[in-house]
Each structure stands twice: as C-alpha cells, then as structure tokens.
Amino acid sequence: MNTIAIKAENFNHFFGKFQTLKNINLEVQRNEILGIIGPSGSGKSTFLRSLNRLNDLVPDSRVEGSLTIDGKNIYAAGTSIIELRRKLGIVFATPVPLPRSIYENIIFGPKMAGVKDKITLDKLVRQSLEDTAIWEEVKDRLSTSALKLSGGQQQRLCIARILALKPDFILLDEPCSGLDPISTMKIEESLRMLKKDYTIIIVTNNTKQAARVADRTAFFLNGEIIEIGYTEKIFTVPKDRRTNDYISGRFG
Amino acid sequence: MKFNNPRIEQKIMLGILWIFTIITVFILLFIILYILKKGLPVISYNFLMTNPVDMGKSGGIFSTIIGTVVLTIGAILIATPLGIGTAIYLTEYTLENKFTRIVKFGSECLAGIPSIIFGLFGFILFVIKLQFGWSILSGSLTLAIMILPTIIRTSEEAIKSVPYIHREVSYSLGSTKWQTVTRVVLPSAIPGIMTGIVLSIGRSIGETAAVIFTAGAVLRIPTSLFSSSRTMAVHFYILAREGISMPNAYGTAAILIIIILIINMVTYILMNRFIKKYS
Questions:
Q1: Options 3.90.850.10, 3.10.350.10, 3.40.50.300, 3.40.1170.60; CATH of A4-247
Q2: What is the pTM (predicted TM-score) of this model?
Q3: What are the chain B neighbours of A59 within 8 Å (beta carbons)?
Q4: Residue B176: what pLDDT?
C-alpha cells in the first residue's frame, strides 16, 4: 500500500521577511517512517510544524505553494485547523506533560474533542499507554502527577497522549534529544511498532537515529531539501557531497 | 567599607541582614500583639453578636462585621471577573501594542492613587450622580475600582508565568483558544491570581477613606443593596477619633486583624491543596 499521504509542492515558508523553507518538494508515503536530518536552523522543525499548522501561532508566519495531506491542501481556506491538529499529533523535543495526572494528560485531547464517556476514556488511556509500552510501568498510578515520571516515561506519555486522539500521523521533533540511550531505544522500538498503523515523520539531530528507524531520510540544509531517498542509500551512497559531509560529521 | 578578610566580611553582612529581618518581624509582632493585648479582653460572644449601642460606647460590633463582609464580597464579585477578564485579554488575545500599553499604564496609575480620591470619585459618581446614595452598592463599586488594578496586575503576571509550551501542547492536541485558556492556562495561573484576590480582600476590609464617602456609616444591619452600612475599619476610626470608646476600638481592631489572618491562612491551605492536585 504505497499511497501518498503528504505531498509538498514548491512549498515556501516565511517568518516575516525571513524565508525558512525554500521550494520544498517532498512526498511522504503512508505507513512509512520518514527521517528528517540536518543541522540546527535548517528548517526541519519549521517544516514539521507547517504540517499541523502550529506555525500559525507565530504572528508573522506565512506560506506559499501547496502542502496537501490526503489530497487536501491544508492551507486552503476553510480548513479546520483543529481537525488537522488532531489528525497530525506532534511530540516536542522536551517532554511536556501538562501539570496534572497521567490519566488526565492522556484524556486531554479527547476531552477537548467532546468525549465524555468514562468507559471510552478509560479504554483510550489503556490502549494508548499499551501502544507506547508504558502501561505496565504506570497502570497502578494513573492518578499521580505526570511530572513525577522519568524523562523517558514522560516522553512516551506524550506519544501516548497523541495516540489517544487516533491520529493518522505522528510528528516527532527531536523526541530523544534529552533522553538517555535506554529510553531512546524504547522510544525507537515503539516507533517501529507504531509504523503499522501510523505514518511517522521524525526530525532528529542524531543522524544515527535516522539510520536506525527511518525508511527514508531527507537531508535539510538552510531551508532546502538537499537530498531525499531510502535511508540505506542516503547513508551509504549519498548523491550530494554536502549530505556526505553532514552524515560523516564534517559539519553541522 | 573594605575588609581584608572575606570571611569576616561574610559574617558581618550576614549579621546585618539578620538584624534587618529581626527588626521587621519585631515591628510586625509588636503591632499585632499590642492590639490583641488591648483588644482581646473586650471580645466576647456578646461583643461579636450584638449591635453597637449608644454610637458604639457599649454593645457589640455585629452590624459592622456584616457591613464589612457584604461590602468586601460585593467588591470582589465585581472586580474579580473584570480583572481576570482584562488580564486574559491583555495576555492571550492581543499582542503588545499601543492600546495594551495604555491599559497597562492606566491600571498602574490607578494602583497608585490614594484611596480617598477613589472615595471622592465614588461619592460624586455613584452616590450623587447615579443616586445610589450612601449604600452597599456605591461602596462595593468604589472598592471594586480601587482593587481592580491589583487584580489585573497579579492575574497578568500569573498568566504570563505559565510556560508558552503548555499552550503549544494544548493547541497541538486540537484545543481551541478558549479551551487552552480555560483548561490549561488558568488552572496553572490560579494560585497567582488568588494571591491578588487575597491582597484585595485585605485592602477592602481595611479600607476607611473610600468607604466612609460611599457606604456611609450607619450602624444598622444592611437590608438591601441600597442600605448604608458601617464597616469595622470605619467603626474603629470613628470610635477612636471621636473618643467614643477606646476599649471597643481596640476590640474592633483585634477582630479585624484576626479575620485577615484567618483569610490568609485558609487561602494558603486551599492553595496548597490545589497546587498538589495540579502538579
């Protein structure tokens, strides 16, 4: 099933006069993991945040070109940003549990969407926590504060929190940048499992992480895509010298 | 002053800071204990539960307690929604611009105006112009205007101190702006907002100048919004100034202090519970 889920055509993004994304052309296949690598300031996160229109929160954010998700231009007038954000869940670089219980964190999204039934919510909580392999660790303390969890657990909770909204896409913005190797490994394992049901885009500063989890990898530099292709190819026989320089650690 | 030995310098400075602290605490304790010592002997069940007799020379202070409570509740009920609403608008719904700067500057100026000016303003506007007369209504409105800047300011600070990323998380989970404000921002800001409200309650309870001009000083239990009423602070002022009864004045002052202490303690306990629930 190799349908195209996301398609960017000549997509540009600006913060005021500053152009952060230049002529992005990119396709994301359904149920793949796309890794996005590149030095900081290369527009990786901006691209990710363009997908669920989180950049709209910045007053002078502006886009040109087209960005379609499931065949619909998400910047077309009449797009429901709320629906869009429910469909594309995002996980940030630092785990950000809201200051409330584990249970309340998971049901936050569904509750805002109007789900009130206790049994449905209970099920959602259990299902999402199981899908991120954290259920066993927290099932006896769902009512304790999410802030008391370890960093790795908090980040998996944040992934579970977006799963509770039954999204189609999972966007991850350097999700392991502050985590220890074991927590990182657990999250990567979860991602491989989640790939069955979701399309995943992971922005990472750690090229090795992209090599480990991504089916395809895109290399961003100064707001442009330099190269995109199957991860093995990118990491073994990159076409562009700059890609090679970056992944072999010569700059970045 | 220059010391050659940093360790001695350290010790001397520590000593000075310690003395400053002791002086502050001493002044505070002295005032409270002095008033309690003078006032407590007067306080009895009768003093609390009967109305003043003979201008307050004898009898209790019941009607002034009711007056204080009603007037303060009125002021808080008016000022809190206005203040929090303004703060939410200023922080969440507009960017910093000329208008918000004017509102902020205005409310800061308002905070620095002596309360007697508010009293005069309330007298002219509410008592005379709007013909509310000397009444609970005029008094509450005047007090509300007086405490509004405090509530706006503290609410604004409290709302601003909620990390921006919490709002981002909320939006990214498909919340509307209003949901984000009410479910994410306000719960985290409530302890700070409450601090402002408690401060305002304290100011309202202790206020005399603004109240005497607008709520009057009638020594009866108010029966409607348009009844005039005397608060404890005003009662204390009149008892002491007219030399009616110093013991009763101290008794009133002691009750005032005790009430404010209780309010602070109860809020503190409630806040701790609330914070525990949300962290």
A1: 3.40.50.300
A2: 0.83
A3: 95
A4: 92
